[in-house]
Automatic annotation (TrEMBL):
Domain 4Fe-4S Mo/W bis-MGD-type: 50-106
Family: Belongs to the prokaryotic molybdopterin-containing oxidoreductase family.
Keyword terms, alphabetized: 4Fe-4S, Iron, Iron-sulfur, Metal-binding, Molybdenum, Oxidoreductase, Signal
Organism from which the protein derives: Desulfonema magnum
Annotated gene: qrcB
GO molecular function: 4 iron, 4 sulfur cluster binding; metal ion binding; molybdopterin cofactor binding; oxidoreductase activity
Name of the protein in its database record: Menaquinone reductase, molybdopterin-binding-like subunit
InterPro entries from the UniProt entry: Asp_de-COase-like_dom_sf, Molybdopterin-Qrc_component, MoPterin_dinucl-bd_dom, Mopterin_OxRdtase, Mopterin_OxRdtase_4Fe-4S_dom, Prok_Mopterin_Oxidored
Listed SUPFAM superfamilies: ADC-like, Formate dehydrogenase/DMSO reductase, domains 1-3
Amino acid sequence: MKIDRRSFLSFVIGGAAGTALTPLPWKLTDDLSIWTQMWPWTPVPQDGEVSYVNSVCTLCPAGCGISVRKVDDRAVKIEGMAGYPGSNGNACILGMAGLQLLYSPTRVKTPLKRVGNRGEGKWKAISWDDAISEVAGKLGELRKDQSSAVAGIVGSDRGTVPQLLKRLLTAYGSPNFMCSPSMDDSYALTLKLMHGVSASAGFDIENANFVLSFGSGIIEGWGSSVRMFKANSALKDKKGKMVQIEPRLSNTAAKADQWVPVRPGTETVFALGLAYVIIQESLYNKDFVENYTAEFDAFRQMLDAYSPDKVAEITGIDAEAITTLAKAFAGASNPLAVCGRGQGTTPGSLHEFMAVHALNALVGNINKKGGVWAVPAPDYIQWPDPELDDIAQKGIQTARADGAGSEKYPHTASLLNRLPEVINSAAQSPVQALLVSGANPLYALPDSKAVKKAFDKIPFIVSFSSQMDETAQYADIILPNHAYLERYQDVPTPTGLQTPLTGLSKPVLDPLFDTKHTGDAIIMIAKALEGNIAAAFPWDNYEVCLSETLGDKWDALVENGFVAQDFQEPGWEGAFTTPSGKFEFVSKACAAESDKPVFSSVTPEGDEKTYPLILIPYDSMRLSNGFIGNPPFLTKTVEDTVLKGNDIVVEINPATAKDRLFSLNDGAPAMLSTPRGEVRVRVHLSDGIMPGFMAMARGLGHTAYDDYLAGKGANFNELIGPAEDPVSGLDSAWGIRAKLTNVPI
């Protein structure tokens, strides 16, 4: 089955896309006076001197340039910074609403020590000296015989602040530095196995003329959201083509030239079916394949199981449509295939990433204009290795708590998704102290109940959050960071950008409260621990560390906000450092026990008889689902087909709703149950979701923050558990079996 824009229900497409792209100011103008009366803390400055400060937004991985308008000492408006690579004068609605995070009443204003039970919300304000002394004392005592029992969690390992925490753990004697997983992890591993390089994936979408997207929310916040909005518009202006492959009519699918409603979980199979046609029809780039690739014959033989007829049975898309799409993709001058579901905040199946990337290789669009580039990380962090004492040397040799780098998962650097189960299955938690910065694992990790149970077993938790999020609520000590508009921070290459870049987030105003930069807090902890640990941190403070680290880039960064690294297009010659020295279609890391290369799919958890439906998540530009919770203005823009009152709304096909098992009307309340949990929902009937499936938005269901966000909807992570990818160990779950039952209105 193939459904394109012309043949699909026009009112659904127009309504979904038009509503989703309505500008924020129009949405808020309707009742602006009411909002300002409701929120006395909304910035309403007196007249004064107007000035602008350029900075970089750090609320998501996009790293957009922003310009903040000030009246005297008050920040009053955020807009895009002209000339900044990627965003160039534009900002997303989360970025524009960021002032509400700066002036939010849920800011943590001073160091706090828990005095009640965990999660009870009882705190005692303490001084910074006492807070640092408390943390250093706990860590010092633990180090005597359990240095490897300390762990750190960060949102990303890129930049000086995460690397300072990693350095602290290394000098202390712990290997347990972990990052929140995302599609960046899967793409990095794909490039490692297929290219043989340590790099991030950059997508030259501006110069592509045929974009094949496997569930990537190009206009839902995937990669750099502002950049993708602009690139998508430019693609249409130059008569390029966008094809969206996913089971739900997302905004991206609605705006695409063609929507291919593939069955969830079969995207890998669909990609291999396209590859089969490209090879059988000899449509591949013969120069690249014959001269710069290895394992092509093994890949071609493996594809015998993925003929269009066989793929049609699995995916629900007819064989002719598969063949036609494969020919159109291979026939374009600059075709580009991408994946990473929704906003890309979950890693997904490594086989899916490799299968999709193989399409780019077949058409020879790697390290070329309009294709996928292997982008090296900025190399400005060149600190000398810390000198390790006997305790540290012994500690860092121990196995990681999450299993990353083990014999089972040798290629993966971090497996935070495995940590809760590891802790819960142990008599005593292998993590006795946990430091969390720039992440909110109690909200963002799947199976929230299991995560909470694991955190209950960790005796000492420290949060560096500037907001009272779910993880901060569960901490023993909070060392509050400056808000993102109050601090310096280096911002390495934004997700998906095809050229290396370093941005600098600069303070727009002085800190409003008794907070400290997380970099300063880490340096203070290190110095309090003394010895080799203190010696590993020679800087007086974080700003000195940052300026010295950036070296001759510092002045240009302060003046311009970014520095673009000299980057020669790598091309094909010498670009691959795999064992063969070539691009490898098939990696031995993906071999089964029989040593035969395979591609596998993940089966959703649950018994089909008990749970006859399948629940899948979706992302929206109006809902932040990372470590930052929605500001109130952003929540105001959420449609009532997503959130109705305090009830979250699930999409379900009318044919499914009329089934004798459900008999549900539009707007009806129901109880949604999965093997991991249950929640009250309301039903929205939509032809944009395949029969037998349900879709729920991510980013709601917070128990923290303020009354404008807490208690609204449900957290999708409470309803789904992780599924370990057999090669990477990363979470590859894409959905879970579920059921609906009627409840009284």
